[in-house]
Amino acid sequence: MQIFAKLPDGGTEPPSWALVELQGDLESRSATSLAGQLIGDLHFTRQGAPVLIVGHHILWGKVTALEKPLLVMRKRDDLTPAAAESDAMETDAEPESRYHVQAIVRNKILFKSRPKPIIANVPKKI
Amino acid sequence: MEAQNTGSSIRPIQDVDAIAEKAKLQLEDLLPKAQTLYFSDDCLANASQLTLVEADAHVIDHVCKGGSLVIRGEPSDSAVLCTAEKTYSVREAETSNSLLLLQSLTGPNEIEKEGPRHVTDRQVAGTFYTYLELRECQPRLRRLHRLLSADPYRGRLHPGTGYSAARLAEAVQASREQLETALRESHALLMDGEYRFLECEYEFHVFSLITKFIDENSWSSVEVRRSLTLETLSELEPAAVVAHCFDKHMKPIGETAADGGEPLYTFCEDQVARLFARLLLQPMKTFNLADFTASWQQSVPDGVTTSVDQLRGLAVVNSEVSPQVVVRLAPTDLPDDAPERFAALFAVKQHWTADELHPYLEDLTSPSVKMGSLLAKNTRLTTKAGVKMYGPKHAH
Fold first, then answer.
1. Which residues in chain A touch residue B111, judged by CB atoms under 8 angstroms apart?
2. Closest CA to B170 of B72, B256, B53
3. Most buried of the four, A32, B45, B172, B365, by CB within 10 Å?
4. Which InterPro entries does the protein's record reference (chain A) (predicted)?
């Protein structure tokens, strides 16, 4: 059997997407779905260092080039089962691609240190 | 999606900056653009529909030129991914970190250094904990040989089972280019759009027709004419088979006949010798070496010299027993798995030269696993009379 993946029709260089790598996992405080929820604010210092504020935590990271880029493949849902079925093909024509190469990721913003808590200013009170 | 990504935030920049100051960031140290990350509404669906594949320069170049990546194999095989030229083994790599994928995000170098502070919303398309790792490997061609050997061509009445290039591409874990090379190197017959191997005895029969025709014309072994041979013999056997058999066993000498200027051919010694060796080796697995080499040299046509080197990939000589023997051994007879492969080889004989082992191990090597490291891992090196010999790691 063969499963084909290629750029959508007529594509050349796929668009560049971005990747943010976090240590551990992001969980919602309430057990609800994460879809649509706010994660946090990303800033860059004038030196180009990324800073991410997530809830009461701050993360310092760096922008790095991936040693090997990542291709983002999307499974197509617009194919009829017959078009995607390449088994026992007897022609030399290439069957429809089941995956599209949608994007390429060449860089990532890596936050590899543990998040640090943000401590609010202690009010000056005597 | 697009509107969300280019539009400004639903949050005012003052709120974003207030949080940044609470985190003890100095706003004047930051670039003017802040970006707020959200999980997109379809992030869960995306995570199941998107796959990240780590790719080297060759794969990316191939994709950007509009080429297809093809995952090949039977459901029970470990998957490979092929470009038009190369084959990669596919492995799922897990990471304990979360990989957040974003369709757009502005990097520090793309942000204007000056200007009013502002904020843009960014959508995380999905969170990933795995990606596929590709490692360049040798094409897995053993199935090709098994398929084509199972039911070979034995003449018009027994045509056997042929396979179109498209059917082979379905079954064989190799790139198109590697498959074509393998078909060429294993001398598969292409007839009516299908590939077949010739059965050994039948191939010998067709070759005998050629040598008989050479004798009938009283040609010497260096003045064989191709077109006349094919024309005459295709009355007896299919033209494609005769041409295939001729081209496999004969080669042009680079001179033309004095009468008419037709190119002259002679025997391709190694191929002819191998054909006779295969036929002689068929009835048994082990032969007395002296008997074998004598009858082998006697059987081949005049002008062909046999030598043990020509048995590469067909048989090996075992000098550890007395008298010495030759053992029929095809690479496809051996197990796929490396340790089992070595065990099977050392069951044939205990000590091998690197050259003898090579045809039986080639397919286990890859750009990352070179022959040297494969041998170092699975064998023990000894030196016998100045010759490096490889034996089992744990000798009994």
1. 44
2. B72
3. B172
4. Ctf8
In this structure, are B109 and B210 located in the same domain?
no
User: How many domains, in total, are found in chain B?
Assistant: 3
In the numeric block, which tokens belong to residue A14?
């796929």
ipTM of the complex: 0.87
Whether residue B349 is contained in a domain is answered as no
> Which residues of A are less than 8 Å from B4 in CB distance?
none
Q: Which of B24, B41, B102, B164 to mutate to test the interface with A (most CBs of A within 10 A)?
A: B102
Residues B14 and B96 in one domain: yes
Q: Is residue B213 one of the residues assigned to a domain?
A: yes
Per residue in B304-337, pLDDT (tens digit) is: 999 999 999 999 999 999 999 999 999 988 998 8
Q: What is the CATH number of domain A5-25+39-117?
A: 2.60.40
Find the domain containing B167 and state its range. 142-196
d(CA A15, CA A37): 25
Q: Which two tokens stand for residue B64?
A: 């950007």
Q: Residue B317: name the closest of B334, B335, B329 by CA.
A: B329
B21-64 pLDDT per residue, tens: 998 899 999 999 999 999 998 888 888 899 999 999 999 999 99
Q: Whole-angstrom Cα distance, residue B167 to residue A97?
A: 17
CA of residue A113 relative to chain centroid, distance: 19
